[in-house]
């Protein structure tokens, strides 16, 4: 039997409470809404193990078209836990990082819309300027600007 090989990373998924707020936040960063719709029924629950479910999903895509972020709002069953304010060293915590071309301008725009800078903006070995921002839904996003 031939060993399976990885072809690509399809997407990262994040469960949110407000799909509209999360879409707006990620659009401000530079992602584009690729599609939005409902996923419902027993077949979906067979994949997730949640049984009969109803989930509204929005797929966001990066400008290069290679990476996607799947935002999901569970209607049924309801969400059972909330990790949005967990510290970055919490087990299973999710963080997404994006490479940007003007980190100061983007952080300024995001904070004007209610996002919060987590910690400080740092220079990593004169290669990147990095920071974490906690945005809509308390989602933690890393931002990196390559230094030339």
TrEMBL record:
The keyword Metal-binding applies. Coiled coil: none annotated. CDD domains: VOC_like (cd08353). Pfam families: Glyoxalase_4 (PF13669). The keyword Disulfide bond does not apply. Keywords: Metal-binding. It comes from the Bacteria. This is VOC family protein. It comes from Mariniflexile soesokkakense. The lineage of its organism: Bacteria, Pseudomonadati, Bacteroidota, Flavobacteriia, Flavobacteriales.
């Amino acid at each position: 039997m031939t060993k399976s090989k990885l072809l690509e990373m399809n997407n990262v998924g994040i469960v949110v409470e407000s799909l509209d707020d999360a879409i707006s936040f990620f659009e401000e960063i530079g992602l584009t809404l690729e599609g939005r719709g409902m996923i419902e029924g027993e077949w979906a629950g067979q994949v997730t193990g949640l049984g009969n479910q109803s989930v509204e999903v929005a797929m966001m895509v990066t400008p290069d078209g290679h990476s996607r972020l799947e935002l999901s709002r569970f209607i049924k069953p309801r969400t059972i836990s909330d990790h949005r304010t967990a510290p970055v060293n919490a087990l299973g915590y999710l963080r997404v990082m994006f490479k940007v071309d003007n980190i100061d301008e983007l952080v300024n725009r995001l904070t004007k819309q209610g996002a919060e800078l987590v910690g400080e903006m740092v220079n990593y070995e004169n290669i990147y300027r990095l920071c974490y921002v906690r945005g809509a839904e308390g989602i933690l996003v890393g931002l990196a600007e390559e230094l030339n």
